[in-house]
Amino acid sequence: MQQNDLDRTDRRLLGMLQEHGRISNLELAEAISLSPAQTLRRHRRLEETGIIKRYEARLDSAGLGFGVTAFIHVTMERGHIRDLSKFKSLVAELAQIQECFSVTGDIDYVLKVVAKDLKSLSDFLLDTLMRIPGVSGVKSSVCLDEIKCTSAMPLDV
């Protein structure tokens, strides 16, 4: 399913689910002005086609004791292609890494990492990240203030 296959009702359904992930099917049907059966069919179709990838609770990192968020730029050794699968699998296993993107430019990856404090971040960088085969350098930027953090997609654009 592509963006062009989504009609106005699908977009309204997705918008409601982004804002109210625990909404009941009946409440969702009322909000988008469809019958519960039609709403459920659309909802399931959006799940089956992969437009809805998963459901999750967004947790407060500071409330859980993670006082530091950092963005880490990772540079790989040239010819790192042999270590690429190992890097990806290790990154997937490390709970501190919330997001990882392969990017263009002078760096190879950008990671979003959470840590309890600066010492924990330093330990993670030196004892874990820098020891991954193929990693030649890291540069970190510590987040001073979170201005916007969302996973909501812009549905009206």
Write structural notes for this entry.
The protein has 157 residues and is α+β, with helices and mostly antiparallel strands. The chain has two domains: 46 residues, Winged helix-like DNA-binding domain superfamily/Winged helix DNA-binding domain (Arc Repressor Mutant, subunit A), CATH 1.10.10.10; 81 residues, Lrp/AsnC effector binding domain/regulation of amino acid metabolism (RAM) domain (Alpha-Beta Plaits, 2-Layer Sandwich), CATH 3.30.70.920. The chain is 34% helix and 19% strand. The chain has five helices and four strands. It has a four-stranded antiparallel beta sheet. Helix 1 crosses helix 2 and helix 2 packs across helix 3. The longest helix is centred in the first third of the chain and has 13 residues. It is elongated and about 55 Å long. The mean pLDDT is 93.
- The helix tally amounts to 5
Largest sheet: 4 strands, antiparallel
Proportion of β residues?
A: 15-25%
Query: Percentage of helical residues?
Result: 25-40%
What is the level-2 CATH architecture name of the largest domain?
2-Layer Sandwich
Give the class from helix and strand content and strand pairing.
alpha+beta
What is the overall pLDDT average?
Answer: 93
Element-by-element helix/strand order: HHHEHEEHE
- Sum up the overall morphology in one term: elongated
Strand order of the largest sheet: 2-3-1-4
Domain HTH asnC-type: 6-67
Pfam families: AsnC_trans_reg (PF01037), HTH_24 (PF13412)
GO cellular component, one term: cytosol
InterPro entries: ArsR-like_HTH, AsnC-type_HTH_dom, Dimeric_a/b-barrel, Tscrpt_reg_AsnC-like, Tscrpt_reg_AsnC/Lrp_C, WH-like_DNA-bd_sf, WH_DNA-bd_sf
